[in-house]
Amino acid sequence: MPSFTSLGVGSNLPLDTLLTNLTTAEKKRLTPITQQQSTNTARLTAYGTLKSALEKFQTANTTLNSADLFKSTTVTSSTEDLTATTTAGAAPGTYMISVTQLAQAQSLSTKSGISSVKEALGDTSSDSRTIKIEQKGRKEPLEIKLSKDQTSLEGIRDAINDADSGISASIVKVKENDYQLVLTADSGVDNKMTISVSGDSKLNDLLAYDSTAGSGNMKQLVEAKNALLKVNGIDIERPSNTITDAPQGVTLNLTKEVTDARITVTKSNEKATEAIKGWVDAYNSLLDTFSTLTKYTEVDPGAETQDTNNGALLGDSAVRTIQTGIRAQFANGASDGAFKTLGEIGITTDGTTGKLKIDDTKLEKALKDNTAATRQLLVGDGKETGITTKIATEVKGYLADDGIIDVAQDNINATLKKLTKQYLAVSNSIDDTVARYKAQFTQLDSMMSKLNSTSNYLGQQFTAMSNS
Question: Which residues form the Flagellar hook-associated protein 2 C-terminal domain (predicted)?
């Protein structure tokens, strides 16, 4: 069979063009599949966008779903020498505070005369030794075992610091060839240190100290003290200069001794207002996402296709379920307080867009005059009642591993897998069909070439006979 570099050469027919046209026609069988793949891929992406928007709203809802938010306070001090902060539950009021003594941390040091920080100071005949540090505020004594290679100032320092016990060790250079080891405990009388070393008499001679008797081979640089203060005339003693429970909900930071410092705690609605506005903004942003994903652009009657700008989840039941489910909770707070609806605290729904809007004046009045009722409406008992509590339950279900979004995504992924298999099957079928066409055209080309050759030969013979 003759071979040809291009179809149609042998037959002088446009077989190459015909094969190209047939191939193009066959490949159109893939178009419905690719369109379905594009549609489903767009829907999968859209569900990811929906999930992200829902998670952002969930974050804002969680922030507002806190009873402590409505118990916020602010605090001021009459002096910079005594600062304070508050937590939820701090009782508004004025507190007169006098600090007569600051808490101090005990500090001990070895005696002078140690010439090297790396020189072994322990008994070389002993393989191990244990430093024991006893403190009244610690249930069990701190025990630190040292090897023969850990008896230098650096070795002892590192071993104590590695214990991470609240006792810190450092080395101080007094002068050339004169170093001291300094141990510092946490502040407070109950953290005074009594130190002994077993298994090494040399180290015991270096580190031994009895805080009860105030004697030993180490010397006390700083005495341990508790903070002493009066709060509204009540004597308070604490081991730290950070007082967290006098009064409760107020943290006092003592820096100097002061007399009659005034700490004023007042109720504040700033955090609650901020959380409510953040919640409204997040919900409105979620509505924008709904609108984008379900957007519909009207087309002329009789149009064969819809507008390409339509949302990927147009007509999707999951979106409607989520949107309806969340909106339903706005009127489902089950509040026993004075407020029954969001509108009563200044949060209303726009009839056209469905978005929430805030009447700042009305919200401020509700928070100021009836904080408890506002909290009851929005938070409820934190378990079953309260608008944000019920929304939290709804949204958690939507975002669960087996929730409505997850199920929809699984279904789309399953469909995409089927479409991929279908695409490969059709593509292979097309390749087989085109190969068959090509083989047939090649055979036709060969046959026509032979027929043309025979015709030419016969024509030449007839012409020769006629001439003779």
Answer: 224-453
